[in-house]
Amino acid sequence: xxxxxxxxxxxxxxxxxxxxxxxxxxxxxxxxxxxxxxxxxxxxxxxxxxxxxxxxxxxxxxxxxxxxxxxxxxxxxxxx
Length: 80
Hints:
single chain, alpha+beta, SH3 type barrels, Transcriptional_repressor_C, FeoA_core_dom
């Protein structure tokens, strides 16, 4: 079963497997550091569920769930 970044629960860690989508959205996501092989950890979801906050490469990043759906993840983080 393929999982996306938006499917992870707070505290879960995973590695980015690939970034789907086309054009500007895909480029923007990858420019923020979400590239294959990098480990991410979900910190929290906003009170209304969107956006989500992740920790990546020592910094915090907020993504809309719509954008997080483009990021395919695989188990492989320290706590995955």
